[in-house]
Write a structure and sequence with these properties.
Layout (H helix, E strand, L loop, with lengths): L36 E3 L4 E3 L2 E2 L3 E4 L2 E3 L2 E8 L4 E3 L2 E8 L2 E3 L2 E8 L4 E3 L2 E8 L4 E3 L2 E3 L10 H8 L10
Parallel strand pairs: 1-4, 2-5, 3-6, 4-6, 5-7, 6-8, 7-9, 8-10, 9-11, 10-12, 11-13, 12-14
Family: Belongs to the bactofilin family.
Protein name: Polymer-forming protein
InterPro entries: BacA/B
């Protein structure tokens, strides 16, 4: 041991923690994150579109869209299905939408089946089709219990006489 050296103690070896698997869709909740992709209003795309991060589409898309955070501007026109973590819609969609978070602004027009865990609709938005919005996890019931649930009317707690 030298005059200026420190005595080293034995450190236990630790293994790095295993990385958790990444989710299929990244939910981008911060509106201030930069937009990574832009489709100009003069552009038309025919075919499948997929992206990561945040994208804004101002043009026309004829095909399905898969991505993380999608903003459709007032000039956007989509004919196809959308599967995203977050959708902010100001434009028109003719197709089905599956997204964890959907915001339909007053200028939006959506025709199709909309499935979302968190749905916000501004006054003036046009929604035509089916809406499946739920923040609760649904459980499947099968067998004889399902028939009992479907056929048994609710019992009134205080029936009026």
């Amino acid at each position: 041991m030298g005059l200026f050296s420190k005595e080293e103690k034995a450190k236990p070896k630790t293994e790095p923690a295993a990385a958790a698997p990444l989710p299929e869709k990244k939910i981008v909740k911060n509106d201030k994150d930069p937009i990574e992709s832009v489709l100009a209003k003069e552009m038309t795309i025919k075919g499948e579109v997929s992206f990561k991060g945040k994208a804004r589409f101002d043009g026309t898309i004829e095909g399905n869209i898969t991505g993380e955070y999608l903003i459709l501007s007032e000039t956007a026109n989509v004919t196809g299905n959308i599967d995203a973590a977050t959708l902010v819609c100001h434009g028109r969609v003719q197709g089905n939408i599956t997204a964890e978070i959907v915001t339909a602004h007053a200028t939006s027009s959506i025709n199709g089946i909309l499935k979302s865990e968190n749905l916000t609709v501004e006054s003036g938005a046009s929604l035509d089709g089916e809406i499946h919005a739920s923040s609760r996890k649904q459980t499947q019931v099968s067998g004889p219990d399902r028939a009992k649930i479907l056929l048994t009317p609710p019992i009134a707690e205080n029936p009026k006489k």
